[in-house]
């Protein structure tokens, strides 16, 4: 994470292809008869992200515990985020580091998730070695960067196919390159040669309207970190009101693109002021558990049941032992906080 009409008939056709809302079940995410995006079925997501920061996170003893805890919230999906790195925003080389989840560990946790009754999405990330915003990646040599990126993403496409992953993201928040429809179209075609399941791209909330390749994908993915005001609040009604113009915009965008919208990420730290900058890990040092819970409630109450909304994958569950840079009581995790009770209420595990 770093810190959306045509005719009603057309929208109805889209709804027929996909399960309505995040509470749906039964669809297995497999391709339709022709394998084209418009013929696929994509499950609604009640999801949680479990990112990795080290080679062996996903094979650690804590992995099975985290997955059981996630399933206990009522979640049906879990997202994994293997990450490769580049040194500078202008570079073309992308590589693994000691912070990249090993393939064996990723296979291990996918199998554990399936054993826990969870469906899986793999959402590979590209980050910068010394930190910074991946949205700023603008390679000097575009062709070379996309060649490297295709090797990276088709590697995970094949791993996803081999392990029965139910959904794959072809990219995350790469706003510096995502306007290049031709290169991305070629990349998505290469991914489909390896992986036949549903595909999305995780666009940042201020990026999704600039993308030209939604037609090549099965779902519009948005990392939904919209600021909901300029003052801290735990007033759910105010937060729902703030969502309303965004909701109208997303409904129209979904209809225009003939695709449902999945919140590939959404989340709030448990810090006072989190709703003013949901993309920030460090809004304040003051406890904001009530504000985090209100933000969860407002999002789910606003979007639940919308026929064009495909669900949410929250950022994020607990950090791995000794790896968290933010204290758990202030971090994005809802675990053990009022926000977890909100999830359990909405997802049927109260």
Automatic annotation (TrEMBL):
Keyword Iron tagged: no
UniProtKB keywords: Signal
Keyword field contains Nucleotide-binding: no
Residue span of region Disordered: 24-47
Signal peptide (from-to): 1-25
* Domain of life assignment: Bacteria
Listed Low complexity bias regions: 24-35
Protein name as catalogued: Uncharacterized protein
């Amino acid at each position: 994470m770093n810190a959306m009409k045509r005719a009603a008939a057309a929208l109805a056709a889209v709804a027929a292809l996909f399960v309505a809302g995040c509470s749906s079940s039964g669809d297995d995410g497999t391709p339709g008869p022709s394998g084209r995006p418009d013929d696929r079925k994509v499950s609604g997501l009640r999801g949680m992200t479990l990112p990795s920061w080290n080679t062996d996170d996903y094979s650690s003893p804590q992995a099975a515990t985290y997955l059981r805890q996630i399933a206990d919230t009522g979640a049906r999906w879990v997202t994994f985020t293997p990450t490769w790195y580049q040194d500078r925003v202008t570079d073309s080389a992308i590589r693994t580091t000691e912070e990249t989840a090993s393939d064996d560990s990723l296979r291990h946790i996918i199998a554990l998730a399936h054993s826990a009754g969870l469906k899986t999405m793999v959402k590979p990330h590209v980050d910068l070695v010394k930190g910074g915003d991946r949205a700023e990646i603008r390679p000097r040599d575009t062709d070379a960067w996309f060649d490297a990126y295709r090797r990276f993403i088709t590697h995970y496409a094949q791993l996803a196919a081999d392990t029965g992953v139910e959904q794959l993201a072809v990219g995350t928040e790469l706003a510096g390159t995502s306007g290049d429809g031709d290169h991305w179209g070629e990349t998505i075609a290469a991914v489909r040669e390896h992986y036949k399941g549903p595909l999305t791209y995780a666009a940042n909330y201020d990026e999704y309207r600039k993308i030209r390749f939604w037609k090549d994908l099965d779902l519009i993915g948005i990392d939904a970190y919209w600021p909901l005001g300029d003052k801290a609040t735990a007033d759910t009604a105010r937060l729902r009101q703030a969502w309303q113009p965004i909701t109208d915009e997303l409904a129209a965008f979904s209809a225009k693109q003939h695709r449902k919208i999945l919140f590939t990420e959404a989340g709030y730290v448990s810090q006072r002021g989190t709703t003013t900058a949901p993309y920030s890990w460090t809004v304040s040092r003051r406890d904001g558990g009530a504000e985090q819970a209100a933000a969860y409630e407002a999002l789910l109450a606003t979007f639940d049941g919308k026929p064009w909304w495909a669900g949410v994958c929250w950022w994020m569950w607990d950090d791995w032992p000794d790896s968290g840079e933010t204290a758990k009581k202030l971090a994005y995790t809802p675990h053990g906080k009022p926000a977890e009770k909100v999830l359990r209420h909405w997802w049927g595990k109260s």
